[in-house]
Amino acid sequence: MKAKNSRLSGVFYLCMIIFGVFAQVIRLNILTFDEGVETMKIIADSIFILRLSFVCDLMQALFYLLTAWALFNILKHFNKNLSLLFLILTVVAVAVYSANMLNHIAIIELNSINYLHLETNELKSATRFYTNLHEYGYLISQLFFGLWLFPLGIIVLQSKIMPKYFGVMLIAATVGALAEFFIIFLFPGNEIVTCPGLVLGMTGEFSFCFWLLYKGLGKVKEYEKNT
């Protein structure tokens, strides 16, 4: 186990968070549909920003994969099977997430080229359709993104170098992600129910990231010295 993997995983985790938040905030601010036609004008005037959001989303996926790889190199010494499980779940999640970005690029293509010469209402309907598909695809990938946190949380609880409350919070993040997935697909309109679990989960992930950056390196070095 190399101590530098702890700092590296923290850096990758932070990059993943930054790119993910940036992409999501941009998309939510632009792809908001109202009763008027202003939405389509906003989208047409924000094509480059949407392209930037597209790139940031894929960078998030890349850093998600790198984070899992770096964590695997640390945590396989505590539980190799569970470490391999969360690595596999991450690979699947990143594959689904990246494929889903085709829906995002479809929105850009529709509104930057408009090669079908659609009327405004038709263009708005098509854009909304691909926006909804992208959101559903994101939620499908979240099933796997949520599941990877469960084995990670168990390993954190088993490890001798990480605070156990991180394990509890990461497992709570899994519960929140799965609750959102099932509620949105089975009981649409009740998304507010999932908020407490998601907030707790996000807090756990952010805290774990900063622990890896500021405390993890020393803890791993100490563990290596004593083993």
Describe the structure.
Helices cover 84% and strands 0% of the residues. The protein is an all-alpha fold and 227 residues long. It has a domain at 4-151 and 217-226. Helix 1 runs antiparallel to helix 3 and helix 3 packs antiparallel against helix 4. The radius of gyration is 20 Å and the shape is elongated. The N and C termini lie close together (10 Å). The model has no long low-confidence stretch (mean pLDDT 81).
Shape: elongated
Helix content: over 70%
| Portion in beta strands | under 5%
Largest sheet: none
Instruction: List SSEs in N-to-C order.
Output: HHHHHHH
Distance between the termini: 10 Å
- Tally of individual helices: 7
Q: How does the helix and strand content classify structurally? A: mainly alpha
Low-confidence spans: none
Integer average pLDDT: 81
Number of strands: 0
The Cα radius of gyration reads 20 Å
Short synopsis of the structure:
The protein has 227 residues and is mainly α.
Which key features would you list for this structure?
227 residues; mainly alpha; 7 helices
Summarize the helices and strands and which ones pair or pack:
Blueprint: H1 4-30, H2 38-44, H3 47-75, H4 80-112, H5 120-158, H6 164-186, H7 195-226
Helix pairs in contact: 1-3, 1-7, 3-4, 4-5, 5-6, 6-7
